[in-house]
TrEMBL record:
It is an enzyme of class 1 (oxidoreductase). This is Epoxyqueuosine reductase. PROSITE patterns: 4FE4S_FER_1, 4FE4S_FER_2. The lineage of its organism: Bacteria, Pseudomonadati, Bacteroidota, Flavobacteriia, Flavobacteriales. [4Fe-4S] cluster 1 binds at residues 186, 189, 192, 246. Its EC number is 1.17.99.6. It comes from Flavobacterium subsaxonicum WB 4.1-42 = DSM 21790.
Length: 309
């Protein structure tokens, strides 16, 4: 006879699939012992640069039971964003995750539906949804629940699907059947370390966030340091290099989420179009996009920086 834990877990995974999630894994909520010293060392070495928010809520980052009363399980979910088509060659580039609508809103809606489904079918379940905007170590939880391993580029990698996916969590106060972590399959490969344009991957499995192109083009609010000029490979928002070169991403398949489809004009923008982009065009093309994080002035700053070679 299948016990309730197994039944509920199967139930949740089946509904996650129906909602369009690529994978779903479950792990026991608790303190992340292995990650604690790593996170502390990373912060002490200032690998987070000017991302002060990374220093906040240290304890909560490592223990979801401090975020959700009575938390017992972490349900980790992956949502594919790999696009069917990419931008015109020779243009300024933005990360593929930002082609369509802002993933925060798209995933939050799906998570709300999943939590509602759990409450309707299982009973009084308390929980919270997290999409990369709260102090949750999402990659660590996804790895713990068997959805992949943390690669040398510090991204979660899956043998079946690569790494072009978003990670989200539901932290709930019921016991479920837990999954097991998978083994690391990076082997002796150093493709991501060799290809990183700014040498931000300072050692296997260690990324200096303050050297990453995504940090400079999205997180950094002041001027980009002049010494970085010429090393951005035309990336104007984010960077996908360490994912593009990863051998496991040859298994990436296009997503089926209409909300992640790009604005019709985005893929064909030339360098000249980017350089002459007006605030109105920016608003139209990136109306509900994650690119809005940099705001118009931030994007202009990035493009001017790339242009001044």
């Amino acid at each position: 006879m299948i016990d309730n834990k197994q039944k509920y877990s199967d139930f949740i995974k089946s509904e996650a699939k129906r909602l369009g999630f690529m994978s779903c894994g479950i792990s026991k909520a608790g303190f992340l012992e292995e990650e604690a010293p790593r996170l502390e060392a990373w912060l002490n070495q200032n690998r987070h640069g000017k991302m002060q928010y990374m220093e906040n809520h240290f304890d909560k980052r490592l223990d979801p039971t401090l975020l959700v009363d009575g938390a017992k399980s972490v349900i980790s979910l992956l949502l594919n964003y790999y696009p069917e088509e990419t931008q015109t060659e020779g243009s300024y580039k933005i990360s593929k995750y930002a082609y369509g609508q802002d993933y925060h809103f798209v995933i939050k809606e799906k998570l709300k539906e999943l939590l509602h489904f759990i409450q309707e079918n299982i009973g009084e379940v308390g929980g919270r949804a997290f999409v990369d905007s709260a102090p949750v170590l999402d990659k660590a939880w996804a790895a713990k629940s068997g959805l992949g391993w943390i690669g040398k580029n510090s991204n979660l990698l899956s043998k079946k699907t690569g790494s072009f996916f978003f990670i989200a969590e539901l932290v709930v106060d019921i016991d479920l059947e837990y999954d097991y972590a998978v083994t690391d399959h990076c082997g002796s490969c150093t493709a991501c370390l060799d290809a990183c344009p700014t040498q931000a991957i300072i050692a296997p499995y260690v990324v200096d966030g303050s050297k990453c192109i995504s940090y400079f083009t999205i997180e950094l609010k002041e001027n980009i340091p002049a010494e970085m000029r010429g090393s951005f490979n035309d990336w104007a928002f984010g960077c996908d290099v360490c994912q593009d070169v990863c051998p496991w991403n040859r298994f990436s398949k296009p997503h089926r989420e209409p909300l992640f489809n790009p604005h019709p004009d985005l893929l064909s923008l030339t360098k000249k179009d980017w350089e002459e982009i007006t605030e109105d065009t920016f608003r139209a093309v990136f109306k509900n996009s994650a690119v809005k994080r940099t705001k118009y002035d931030g994007l202009k700053r990035n493009i001017n920086f790339l242009k001044e070679l």
